[in-house]
Amino acid sequence: MSMLTVSENGNRVLTVADYEARIELYKEQIGTGYIGIGKTLIEAKESGAVAHGEWEPWVERVTGLTMRQAQRCMQAAREIREGSAMARLEMSKAILLLQSGLDEETREEIAGRADSEGATVRQLREEIREAREKMAEQERESAEAVRALKGQLVQSTGAAAEIRQALKKAEQERDQVAAQMRASQQGWQARMDEEAGRAYKRGADEGRMAAEKDAARKVQARLKELQAACDRAQLQAAEARQKLTESEGRMAEEKAAKAGVQGRLKELQAEADARAEMVTRLEQEAQALREDLEAAERREEKRSAQMAKMQEQIGQREMDAARGVRASLGGEMDLGAAVRRFLAEVGMLPQMGAMLSGIGESERAALRVHVDAVSAWARGAAAALETIGADGAVM
């Protein structure tokens, strides 16, 4: 095991003994000392103070934890930020929240309530389950919104296709009318040229010329009709171009909306993938978490058994002390010796301080009964002494 003491620049660095002393200090902080243990383990590992092959034996020896539990402490130290409500929870509850798959804001809300209300592991697990169900409901709503957007996109695409088809049909009709007008003009012009040539060749036949003039008037009337048809076709073409312009504008708007929808779809898909990955990781760690929780419950049962044994020992000691007092009263009264024996046995109780916060309410109530009994005895003894005067007479 490496015993580093001085860095290359001459500044003192922590030794293995320093890390061990710090871990012992955090072990005395019942409930939340695991974060300090995790930070110390991270710092010790990164410093290289412990040789690589001796890391796991050293961790188990110094912390009294399994490697899995030590890794949980290091995880908590990395992921629980300073001032977080989760830092005030016991390790089993904090790890349960870290591996719940919930976002940080939700975890902080649940941790704050658990700390203020003193929630048990079972109550905390139930609240996490409710929060995860709420998150799943939000995911379902997001999926429904995605499906609705896809439906709108399909409808917009269909409408655009219908508009393009109508424009294509209008352009075809316009081209047909223009072709008919050109063919009609060319045919009537050819016929007029032919009839005029024949009339000039036949001489000044007025009757034929009148007929030709009449034919020319008919041709001109037909030309006017064709010109009117051409004008109408041009008007229709202009209207079709206007509709085309409006349709292109709508298509541009729909294209922009489509791009927005596709961007939103990508965002929702990314969120869905992240949540799926989170659920997969949660399922993978569920078994390990259950093992840790079961170990925590076994430790709580063991601690309750220890407290019951302590209460039994305290009761036995009280009975022994009472027998000693009765024996002293039967012979020579040595109250000072009895008090000194009592203080030697339970005099550490007022200095236990934060250690008592780690026991259950029922254990604290039992201790409080014993303390009240001692207080009542002290008050009765003081009252008895005040009834005796200076001359020994009862007052």
Give structural notes.
By secondary structure, the chain is mainly alpha-helical. The protein folds into 3 domains: 16-122; 137-282, Helix Hairpins (Orthogonal Bundle); 303-386, no CATH class. It has 10 helices and no strands. Helix 1 packs antiparallel against helix 2 (33-47), helix 7 (121-202) packs antiparallel against helix 8 (206-330) and helix 8 runs parallel beside helix 10. The protein is rod-shaped and about 180 Å long. The two termini are 74 Å apart.
Write a brief structural summary.
This protein is mainly alpha-helical and 395 residues long. It is built from ten helices and no strands. The protein has three domains: 107 residues; 146 residues, Helix Hairpins, CATH 1.10.287; 84 residues, no CATH class.
Q: Quick check: average pLDDT? A: 76
- How many helices in DSSP terms? 10
What is the string of SSEs from the N terminus onward?
Answer: HHHHHHHHHH
Instruction: Give the end-to-end Cα distance, rounded to a whole number of Å.
Output: 74 Å
The helix content, as a percent range, equals: over 70%
Structural class: mainly alpha
Proportion of strand residues: under 5%
- Counting structural domains, the number is 3
Low-confidence stretches: 1-10
CATH architecture of the largest domain: Orthogonal Bundle
**Gross geometry:** rod-shaped
